[in-house]
Amino acid sequence: MFGGNAQHTGQASSLGPQTANLAMTSNVTVKARTSPVIGIDKTIYVGGSDNKLYAINPNGSIKWSLALTGGRIRTPAISSTGGIYVADGYSLYSIHPNGSIEWDTKTFTQEPWFPQTGPPYITFTSDITIYNDIIYFGETVGRFGAITLGGSMKWHAKDDRYQGPTIYVAPTIGFDRLFIKDVEGMFGSYSLGIGNLWFYWWYPGYTGDMTLYPLPIGADGYLYVNLFGFLSPVDYQNGLTTGHLPSYDHSGGIGISSDGTVYVGSTTGYFYAFKNNSGVLAIKWAFPADGAIMSSPAIGSDGTVYFGTDNGKVYAVDKNGSKKWEYSTGGAVMTALAIGPDGTLYAGSSDGKIYGFHD
What we know:
- The protein is mainly β.
- The chain has a single domain, classed as YVTN repeat-like/Quinoprotein amine dehydrogenase (Methylamine Dehydrogenase, Chain H, 7 Propeller), CATH 2.130.10.
- It is about 0% helix and about 40% strand.
- The protein is built from no helices and 30 strands.
- Strands 18-19-20-21-22-23 form a six-stranded antiparallel sheet, with no helix packed on it. Strands 1-30-29-28 form a four-stranded antiparallel sheet, with no helix packed on it. A four-stranded antiparallel sheet has the order 2-3-4-5, with no helix packed on it.
- Strand 14 (about 170-175) and strand 15 (about 175-180) form a beta hairpin.
- It starts with about 20 loop residues before the first strand and ends with a strand.
């Protein structure tokens, strides 16, 4: 799933590549629209700009592709049993490892999937998050819900404070709560079991949030919000923040390392590391990269952070801000990077290829 876990931190349990050794490329021929996701059998799954889900073997060959019929494919997620789940803006699919569809919610005809009273039907506009084998999703008009791996609705909720904003980003799970962010900069904290509201918050003057990245949450209980280039730590217990960090034009996705360091890229070409001192962010270092950084980082078990730029570069930077290596792809690297269980780093490029790096 996006960010490698339900907290969307980008942390990996394995050591990423220490050198720019290209172990494989896969030519899917279309622009990667989603982050690569790695299955338990090391198959790589990625959504393309043609609205197909691609399954790629570790050697780079295409295993299969599946055309989805909805509006826009979202980042897939893998269950603990190896099942593949993906939304396309209209439906949610459960897919077997061989590429056949197990179930598809648009074929469900019972309540609440297909209300007898007519629309609104359930849609799936967000990336999905799987936690303890439950699928969490967001949709239109502020609705969100939880589904079992078998396709049964666990619960479905709507916050009446939402009057239409769509939820595009994956729900975040931490400290037994579910955190939702909609497209207009409204945020909510809900009980994980039934979706009851704890609280909601928003920032006056910062509606219209179009940075479509989840809210990562660290082990210290802080969520991180990226609003129009302003980075804010938010206490998960009450939604309070000490204020926005002065803008460095932070427009990329946010990563959080195991030591609590917060990483984010910028359109000015700098990749930043921040330390959170009880809700007050202080800059640790800034790394100058070639091109704007819109991708979300992946973080290896040794603290090495990996990210891409719109000039086609993939970078590996150590936890002190020193470059380990860089590699030039043939197109912009705009989606989140991912590290597989064997330590292979995967990056999708607009040149129609998936790149895999392994020592």
